Amino acid sequence: MHDYIAIQRKAEEQEQKGFFIPSSPSSKATVVAVGLKVREIVVGDVIQFNRYAGYVIKGDGVDVTLIHEGDVLFIEIEREAPSF
């Protein structure tokens, strides 16, 4: 896998007059595996990436997408709200 990252896309929905309509492929995903040469991304990270990048692998009811580390736009970081 070298510099590849295995991800599971998050469902992206749009609301239109009270109905939820699935949209095009989501650009938000959770990392499920990383290659040996991936430096800054770890399993469990939530990332934003180029939505049309990668290769989709289907199996056992789970779709996994393989993307290059360079296709990641940013890593979402959850932070606690400051207490005053």
From TrEMBL:
Keywords tagged on the record: Chaperone
InterPro entries on file: Chaperonin_GroES (IPR020818), Chaperonin_GroES_sf (IPR037124), GroES-like_sf (IPR011032)
CDD domains, alphabetized: cpn10 (cd00320)
Molecular-function annotations in GO: ATP binding; protein folding chaperone
Family: Belongs to the GroES chaperonin family.
Protein name: 10 kDa chaperonin
Upper lineage: Bacteria, Pseudomonadati, Pseudomonadota, Gammaproteobacteria, Vibrionales
